[in-house]
Amino acid sequence: MPRVAFITPDRSDLPPLTKYASLQVGDTRKTVGYTEATRGCKHRCRHCPIVPVYDGRFRAVPVDVVLADIRAQVAAGAQHITFGDPDFFNGPTHALAIVEALARECPGVSYDVTIKVEHLRQQAAALPRLLETGCAFVTSAVESFDDAVLAKLEKGHTHADFVAVVRHCQSLGLALSPTFVAFTPWTTATSFCAQLQEIDRLGLVAAISPIQYAIRLLIPDGSRMLELEDVRARIERFDAGSLTHVWRHADPRVDALQQQLERLVGSRLNAPRDEVFAGVLDLAHAAAGTPVPPREPLVARAAIPYLNEPWYC
Description:
The protein is α/β, with parallel strands linked by helices. About 35% of the residues lie in helices and about 15% in strands. The chain has helices at about 50-55, 65-75, 90-105, 115-120, 125-130, 145-155, 160-170, 190-200, 230, 250-265, 275-290; strands at about 20-25, 30-35, 40, 60, 80-85, 110-115, 135-145, 175-180, 235-240, 245, 305.
């Protein structure tokens, strides 16, 4: 993959930023801009659609190019910047230089980033610097709480690693927005219920976009998921329209549950997250044939910032 000379993006002929997703913080909305500090990713997580393209390589966009892009968007009304890097801490020194410059040059402009659980563990000492420079929240692709599934996906972290990250972020007051691949060939109704219970136990219900409960494993052309025999056995065909391999779960009830959840969350996009979670619990436990366990009342917390167009990660 040849190196390229990055230039400052020209977004002048795009719709105004107010036509795009906004940041919701309680009753307040902030206009959002978008940029990238890097391209690609140095990791090769087996399920990731970026891997067939970049295959473990990434390129840092020069700091001056990124800042020029941000300045132009702030001048156009951006009050918050989404960094769209697959992993903002692929190059932590580069990343921190950018957000520190952003904080100096554009005080009051917040931002969000996406960082692997593995990197949140390794770079734990850097997380306060994110808060100090205006980070509103961190998206992190958790995918599963099952260590065996995480190993198949080659995520580079364990369930215990994620719990440690959650507790550290909570101690700092740094909002974490976990994402999941809830439905894989190894998901069962019972394991899905266990995942919901762990989300509740960790106090993450309000932090998770409900669409995450319905995300199904995507297998694009060239996916490393095809390395696994038990995945290949579930594939029915390649769909040229979506450029993905169509797969079916061994248990039709699991696919039926995923479809029910997709309809539920799709019809309640603006409903309170705890209400949607309760509906997800009902459907999941009905599929598993088990009663919904009693829940502790939610503790009132400060409003968690989120983009009103969910980021699937």
